Amino acid sequence: MERLDDPGYITKLDKSKMRMLIGNLPDQFSMASKSFQEAKLNLKARFSSVVVAGMGGSAIGGDLVSAYLSSNLPAPVWVVRNYEVPSFVTRNTLLIAVSYSGNTEETLSAFEDGKRKRARIVCIASGGSLTEIAKSESIPFLTVPRGMPPRCAIGFLSTSILLSIGLAFDVSGLTTELEEVGDVLKKMKNVLEPDNPVKKNPAKKIAGKLAHKLPFVYSSSRMTDPVARRWSTQINENAKSLCHYSSLPELDHNEIVGWGIPREVSYASHVLFLDPGNLSEKLRRRLAVTKEIISQMAEVESLTASGTGNLARLFSLVFLGDYVSFYLAMLNGVDPTPIERIDLLKKRLKEGH
């Protein structure tokens, strides 16, 4: 754990400055909001559904927005991670094609499928083929800053998706909620950044508990489901470590039975329950009982969101998880930025064409 308080060790290992990219998240929401206003999109239409097409770090923003809007949007928001959009897509569907690079194979294919089905389309990218096609065909598009791993652009991408849907459905209050996200995350940054020592830094403490363990990240509500997924993928990509995620109440109908076998796996696991801080009484009771049962076979703890609005609550847990994944990478002795196996996979797939 001492290594987490050693600036020289962190600087040497974090060659691409992932710590700075994570720390920039609080500013992304206001920057993306300004860019959205300058784009002056026209999305006046009657939509019956929304589909967000993307992969990896470009798709998780759609999951977060879908969870946030699930209780106050009159249409479903589907996130598609595939080569095609659903069969229900028509001219009454708002299709948001998201590819940070602009060259994601699956997203470009889904984009073309959506065009064939006559969906109303908005493209979000930092450049690449998606932006070029959108320009040439006069399809509305939003540009996000380039030069970072897609997973580090989550604030830019999420805000662009959220404001596009908000404009299409005339959702009120988004500006206030986005401002709160920035404020809450800036306060958290002071506590979570590398300069703050282990004894005062919750992200470093959690990473220490996860070191040499198999992390399980459990969501306690519909709203935190995509946050659990984000924690898992960040631990995968940044810490180069396996991680499992699931959600209540579903896991109480199957996964809970699996705890204990293999014994050595259960006792080498650490379970994190994500609590948005505003659970219903039914879910709060379920969370408490589930924790009590699993604690007989593994280490467990709850992490509670910060903020007043639901959007701030969501991103406070995202921000904490991003820092935890970074410190876990430091403890694992790996540079968090490279994703060599994904790069190898893409290379091998290209060779097969």
TrEMBL record:
GO MF terms held by the record: carbohydrate derivative binding; glucose-6-phosphate isomerase activity; mannose-6-phosphate isomerase activity
Regions annotated as coiled coil: none
Which PROSITE patterns does the record cross-reference, listed alphabetically? SIS
Give the GO terms filed under biological process for this record.
carbohydrate derivative metabolic process; carbohydrate metabolic process
> Which Pfam families did the record assign?
bact-PGI_C (PF10432), SIS (PF01380)
Q: Which UniProt keywords apply?
A: Isomerase
Looking at the record, the residues that make up the SIS domain are 32-180
**Entries under Gene3D superfamilies matching the protein:** Glucose-6-phosphate isomerase like protein, domain 1 (3.40.50.10490)
UniProt cross-references to NCBIfam families, sorted A to Z: G6PI_arch, PRK08674.1-2, PRK08674.1-6
According to its UniProt record, which protein family does this protein belong to?
Belongs to the PGI/PMI family.
What protein is this chain from? Bifunctional phosphoglucose/phosphomannose isomerase
Annotated source species = candidate division TA06 bacterium
- Native organism taxonomy: Bacteria, Bacteria division TA06
